[in-house]
């Protein structure tokens, strides 16, 4: 689970001062060369509120958090400082924006569905894992070197349930899993993005692992083609993507016996049903039935009238399809009288030919 809190640094020097006042953290700015030109610019900085030094692991700010002190023993609590427009914003003395991000363990209740070959999950409830309130890092003397070890375990026990498929109601994260997860975050905490000048490519820089064990820290860098930590990007959304990826890894990692722990449950398959509202179809069906009845009645009535010349019965279809011949049109004329037409019809026969 992730949370973030945004606040801005006042104009002036872009730096944070810890409550103890012993040190300051530079957030944004650039090098001023001897000739007065603008040099290397710092546009982004990520740093943990707990020292990554394995021999210390002490909080940097308060108890390791500013806005999330009510969350005990998080995976990571860190600041993300970014300046809008990157190095261009830095050279313009744009005030950086700082987010405090908190990542911690939780258990989610999911409502699943299966549609068109894909499983869909909707989170209905989130509960944070419990742990003791003691500081989790404890120092141990190993061959004359003080090494900090993570000693806290996390668990959540749900109320007992009688269903056989819901017998596993306790969720746990042991200290070894927690330590490996923290070390993964140590790869980017601390880290920063700098640019040599306004025309060069930005570089993402971080310290290699192993600092504090006798080997000096080495700065590793790579081109930063894109930077999701810069404003106005959504920092919370970016952190949620990281948390979702971690969740997928946790769910697909086998246990000590190289087996996946499967959770049984019900996955609903969505189906589409058609319901006919006959009330809406009554009127069109009634009109169709009345029209058909009227047509049948008309044909039946006309077929019984022997004394009336039935022009439509034996010739109208042929006339509609082929039309009258040229000789017949000339004999009728342009303005014939009805009587003349009836006289001619009595002696006229029309047939369909291919």
TrEMBL record:
Chain segments annotated as transmembrane: 280-300
Assigned keywords, A-Z: Membrane, Transmembrane, Transmembrane helix
PANTHER family cross-referenced by the UniProt entry: DUF3176 DOMAIN-CONTAINING PROTEIN
Protein name: Transmembrane protein
């Amino acid at each position: 689970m992730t949370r973030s809190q945004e606040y801005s640094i006042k104009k002036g020097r872009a730096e944070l001062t810890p409550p103890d006042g012993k040190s300051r953290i530079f957030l944004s700015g650039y090098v001023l060369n001897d000739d007065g030109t603008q040099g290397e610019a710092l546009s982004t900085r990520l740093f943990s509120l707990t020292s990554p030094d394995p021999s210390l692991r002490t909080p940097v700010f308060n108890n390791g958090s500013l806005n999330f002190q009510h969350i005990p023993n998080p995976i990571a609590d860190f600041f993300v400082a970014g300046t809008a427009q990157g190095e261009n914003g830095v050279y313009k003395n744009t005030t950086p924006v700082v987010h405090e991000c908190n990542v911690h363990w939780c258990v989610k209740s999911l409502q699943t569905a299966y549609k068109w070959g894909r499983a869909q999950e909707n989170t209905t409830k989130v509960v944070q894992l419990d742990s003791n309130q003691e500081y989790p890092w404890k120092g141990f003397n190993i061959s004359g070197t003080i090494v900090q070890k993570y000693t806290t375990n996390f668990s959540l026990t749900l109320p007992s349930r009688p269903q056989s498929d819901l017998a596993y109601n306790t969720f746990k994260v042991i200290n070894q899993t927690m330590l490996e997860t923290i070390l993964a975050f140590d790869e980017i905490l601390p880290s920063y993005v700098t640019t040599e000048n306004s025309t060069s490519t930005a570089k993402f820089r971080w310290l290699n692992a192993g600092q504090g064990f006798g080997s000096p820290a080495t700065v590793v860098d790579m081109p930063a083609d894109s930077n999701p930590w810069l404003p106005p990007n959504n920092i919370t959304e970016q952190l949620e993507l990281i948390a979702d990826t971690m969740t997928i890894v946790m769910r697909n990692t086998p246990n000590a016996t190289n087996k996946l722990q499967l959770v049984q449950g019900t996955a609903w398959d969505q189906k589409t049903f058609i319901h006919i509202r006959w009330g809406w179809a009554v009127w069109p069906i009634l009109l169709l039935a009345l029209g058909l009845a009227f047509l049948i009645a008309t044909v039946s009535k006309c077929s019984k009238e022997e004394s009336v010349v039935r022009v439509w019965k034996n010739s109208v279809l042929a006339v509609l399809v082929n039309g009258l011949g040229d000789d017949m049109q000339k004999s009728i004329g342009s303005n014939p009288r009805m009587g003349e037409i009836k006289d001619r019809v009595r002696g006229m026969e029309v047939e369909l030919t291919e």
